[in-house]
Batch of 2 targets.
Target 1
Amino acid sequence: MNKLIVSLIMIFGFSIFPVTGYSADQSSEKTAVAFRLNSQDIEIDGKLNDPGWQSAQAYDGFTQRDPSDGKPASFPTSFRIVYDDEYLYVGINAIDPQIDQIEAILTRRDEYTESDWVYISLDSYNDNRTAFEFGLNAAGVQHDLRRYDDNNADDDWNAVWDGAVEIHNAGWSAEFRIPFRELRFTSSAQMRWGLQIYRELPRNNELAVWNYWSKDETGFVSQYGTLEGLSNVESTRPLYISPYILGQSNHSDQIQSMSQSNPWSHTSNIGGDIRYTFSNGLTMNATVNPDFGQVEADPADFNLTEFESYFAEKRPFFKEGSDILNFNDALYYSRRIGARPAKILAAGKLTGKTTNGTSIGVMNATTGEGFSTLTDLPSTSSSEPLTNYFLARLQRDYHEGQTTFGGLMTSVNRRLNDATRQHLHSDAYTGGIDFSHEFLNREYEIEGVFAGSHVLGAPMAITQTQRSSARYFQRPDADYLSVDTTATSLSGIGHELSISKISGHWRGSFVTSSSSPGLEVNDLGFLQRVDEISQNLWIQYREWEETKYYQELYLNVNQWTGFNYGGRLLNKGGNVNAHATLLNNWDIGGGFNFNFPGINLTELRGGPAIYAPANRNVWGYIETDSRKDFSYELFSHYFINTDNVTRYEISQAFNIRPRQNIQLLFNPSFVEFSDTWAWVGKAYDTNNEPHYLFSGLLQKELYLTVRIDYTIRPNLSIQYYAQPYFTAGSRNKYVETADLMASDFDERFSSLDNYDVNYNEHTDQYEYDITGDGTVDYFSGGSPRGDFNYKQFRSNLVIRWEYVSGSTMYLVWSQGFTEATGMGELQLNRDFKSLFHAPGENVLLLKISYLMNV
């Protein structure tokens, strides 16, 4: 393995420092001039026949980046830019001699499809890293996004702007009217912005740009041309106020209790959002009593591991502008804010970028006390205290965006009471610095993140943190760790450092990272496990010149190694994978992973480390032409280790477009997992010695995701989402640990052929008869895991009407059913009927918001 690592590093080194002295071609920067309108008006109807357009110069000369990098665009594209005191107007004419083949797919706003698109992207900061982008497809669907850090994009950014298109006898045209108040800039007599215009022609797989740069080069925003001619423009009327009203009805048999005599509940609510843009380019967003009732439900999840599940953020307030607040995913996980049963009372954030290249992000949110209802008693229990969450992020650009340096700090402060003091931190703080630097003609980059944490609380709360699944300080074989039951604080540090080659056909990176045992970020971040030092190597060869076999090809090699802070080898392995786009526009790919034997620190849930057997897995996928009205995706994965643990997964996706405004997605998936040592529980014998119990487990999982989108107009749509989910597992062949570091399964575990367990009501304990002689051998306070059958159905029907630009009405119907039993077998017909006879919940919600520009 050491020879393999050395060989890979040598290959990577030669790719970084090629002997040929390669230098990427540099783009030639183009310049466009915006014309100031006097008395001319521009009517936004998609037609470029207004007199104001004729006063401005037309710009053309687009060049392909796909599929033939550097060749002229297939069809001519031209644009003109004019402006007045309030708006920037862009008119784009996309010539197409085959107008019957123009793809004009109608969806709701911000839904990307394989349509004909034109985009304008504005680097109004002129920092080579940030841009505001606006797109229209041939059906008039709007798409806006915010680019950041040169290469990244935030699709959740939304602006209030207008656009229209027209298909004419020579192709199609698009008109954009973008309020200056939606952009971030500093006014002056001679303003210079970065500018890019690009066009997507799906039937040719073509992306054509106005200011071209080679695929050998890195960057996106840094490769823009220049927009001149703007003079003394001010961001007028920068204040938006968006109040909302809401009514909601719930019907659920589960809410009936001694304090709730019927299954109905009705609620109403009012709240609002405020947005104000300051003259220095910063924007304040605030929300009071927010509601996220129209947000799609999380997917079903049945977690048998010792680690918390991760769910993506879907709430608009936290998604928008998250790029500026982001420092590292581990330190800021916005789902911590307002998690049930807590409710967000108010939240606000200040984000933006100043003229000197400093990005600023400040967020504060306050959640009220949350109560858990006791269903069998007319009472509630406080489970979440009044809490304040704070985050501040600063980052500064240097050398035209090629160097950045920044930092972040977060704090969580709780008003604890007797019910919460013993299991929650009173205060939690994290902080860190990060940097990046591109060098050697921007072909290489070094990046680093260094962070630390400090949490405070009552001794029981800190003890609970030390004993949590993220760290398990109580591990008896970890001589460098111990549980301090008197501690009232805990601290830790972590880092990630990488050096990468980011341009050319050969690319790659070498990364080191660490997280000390005391690092605790989960009050506002997300980190499943600490106490690890790791190293990763990635090498890639990419080919984008079309051949007689494919359009694009990517080949990757990966290698990794991990240790804990006690110096023990946790894992080492590697991966090879390949991806290609074929000439028929099908995508195929696959890979092979292998891991050598290591150790597992967490499988015994706080017990000693145990041998982790070698494993390997293979995966592959195929996706047919997504431009077609019917397309199909297939993904398959197979895992096996030397203990004969296997996992097989197959997932399919059927994408159907019966009409240009109707989209159907059916995504069935099946997983079969056969384990030879699945966790059952920990028990103690009469000498109070622990015993770690496992079993064989055969688990099957079946679920289906359904999405139906019907767009009546770009501002009026109906969307339906549903997911039925079924899983069941049956146990067999119970064992307990023996020689923990034995590579042979039969030496590592001893069989429990006569395993039997019963619950003793008098002692409130589970009693284990291991030998089958009728006597109790082990005891445990917690329930051992047995057979299970879990099923869930979640659905959302959303009617969305943007009746005025920025003002929206939602009518939402949500339905859900959940049932869990001890049956270990999956029988679809039986389980399907049983699920929909289980107690369900129906929610009907009407929400109306109105945007006021003051």
Note: Residues 1-27, 374-379 have pLDDT under 50 and may be disordered.
Target 2
Amino acid sequence: MANLPIYEVEGKILDALRGGGRLILSAPTGSGKSTQVPQMLLKHGFLDKGDVVVLQPRRLAARMLAARVAEELGVELGREVGYQVRFESAVSAATKIRFVTEGILLRRMIDDPSLPGVAAIVFDEFHERHLYGDVTLARALDARPDLKLIVMSATLDVERLETYLAPCVTVRSEGRTFPVAVEHHASDAPVWDQAADVFARWDGEGDVLIFMPGGYEISRTMEAIRSRGAKGFDVLPLHGDLSPRDQDAAVAKTGRRKVVVATNVAETSITIDGVRLVIDSGLARVARYDPQRGINTLLIEKISRASAEQRAGRAGRTAPGTCARLWPSGETRQACELPEVKRLDLAEVVLALKDAGVADVRTFRWLEAPTETALADAERLLEALGALKGGAITALGRRMLKFPLHPRWARMLLAGPARPAALLAALTQGRDLLLRGCDRETEAFRERILADKETSDFWRLVKAYAWAEKQDFKLDACRRAGIHAVTARQVGPLFRQILRIAEKEGLDIQREGSEEELRKSVLTAFPDRVARRLDEGTLRCELVGGRRGNLAKESVARHAPLIVAAEVREVEGKELNTILSLATAVEPAWLKELFPEAISTRVSTTYDSGARKVVAAEELCFRDLALESKALERPPAEEAARLLAVEVVAGRLKLDGWDHGVEQWIERVNLIAKRAPELGIAEIDEGGRRALMEQLCAGASSYKEIKSRSVMAAVKSWLDAAGQGLIEKHAPERLTMSNGKTPKVTYAPEGPYVALKIQDLFGVSKIPAIALGKVTPLVHILAPSQRPVQITRDLEGFWRDHYPGIKKELQRKYPRHEWR
């Protein structure tokens, strides 16, 4: 492997490590850094007193890279070279090169921050900015002075990292990538059809790599390619849901040409040799957490320019290649992905940091600090789970950390009967066990084997797993039932590992417990996900926190009035829809039993648009969610007036007395307030209107009571008698003209005006000013037909410049009128 580009900078890498021990390595995709740098450390004696831990963002990459390095060294996987991911391990006492996912190392650092037995840490593909990578790097900086730290990627924010890691050395490898011609193809066709069309037109050499956002799009792309004729290619998928054998098949050298349709797992770390054409959908499924609504989202989003460059580089690994991008060339894209620390749930990390002695996570040495909202939300959840108290970790919180699970699932395990709770946790750690979007035949068969009157969606997962286990997890059998075979196969080992940890924590792992106990344990883990059905005819629900969502249509808890949802997610379809799934029916009494401090009573006041009145009820609440309601005979007076006022101001209720005269008075007041502020008149703005309206509605609770109330007196009461006098004087209802005419002034937001026929203006050369002489009203000069012939403030100019011509025309039309 010495011919790989990374060996051109081997000397610089070794010099840097022998010096300060902190290295930033920037090397292009395919240069060999992921597989060769750990071998350099082994070869040159850096691992004589410990091993190297290579952090990978993805489980698939960790396993496949470990297998590749073991093969290159000619050793058995799990001996000198191994890997560890959540719930899966292939390492031994002899392991010197250990590929791990990021959370594994952080938990090890919590147990012992000095990391005995570790000589070096390699942060691979650091540009992806995974949450645990950021936190682990920060902790590693304080571990030991002799610990070697290598941060590497093809695309790095080197300047930020150099400041953060100082003192450190930066080494750049130019690599030997070949030129890649970039083309843009865009149409209104589904993205899989676009990709298949590009492939069908291609007649070049080598293999093809197609990037799609997820498993569904991958399967549709493979179908579309095969329907157009695959030209003797093997068409293979590559994503995290596949079995290890199928994943290996996508990257294996077989002597046959192939089309690999992959998620962004093929963007970095994993190299597929021989690719000459990359077809890039420009899309990826991105996980986010919305702390304001407490929901997880997994939406298809446009990739960044940095990701697009990474993907394109895969076509120039061994020879000149082509990258076909399925979006317009001028389309704007962000420079790089948002770091996970700014878009994921931080509860697990915050708890880990608290256990590591970080009293205030806001002062932690973040590479990029998370938002205050996200941190506060994580702390609130941990307080609710009993993991924190007053910001400090509790004994319960430390027990929760013993499980490699999100704090919610760990809390459930510690609250309920261990054995069934461990199974529920295992069933939720991987991909969805039950496939979505199955055809009718599959749905019908699944319903036959799973259907029962149950109280929780978890029971369906338990039954599905048991059925798949009886079928020995055979792919065809599981597919027939709409069960993901690979996910089902992974449940057993996870279940047993969780049980082993539970036993170490002193839990009775043989106790099955009652159904009620298990349902209560789920409630204990998700107190912020309690929801009440809004009506029996739909699946609409109201959740704690004032959120709304729809219970999943397949939920077995759809007849329960009160549920707790272990999963709340935002799903992208024709429109965004918040779906509540993994729902469990709960009893109101359990809330009072488990969370007595969260139970309260309140008076809820609302406007009934049908009855056109304000109604009120006394509600028993869990947090802010109403559980029970009792109607009150009369609503609180102040709130009733406020709600009625809102309806009147919005125009949905009309008061007989709120007429043009009232609006004119308000305009007069506002003119003086704005144009003559020295008079001390307060403007009647929207808030003022509401205040006046509330005064009008005082003591009433229905439209009938306010419809005929006197309005003008109430509106004029905005000012005292002296203020009203100032309005009459400086914003008069009528103007007195020099010829004795007294036209009515119309006050409008754009300014006041009067409307007069030309004959009524004879002898007038100037319009009287108002508002302390600061405002001259406009004059709408009317023909005998009452239509305006001129709008002006300059009467002298009108008589001089315009009237002669207007007079000539109008005199012909209206000879019986006076014309001077």
Note: The chain has a mean pLDDT of 90.
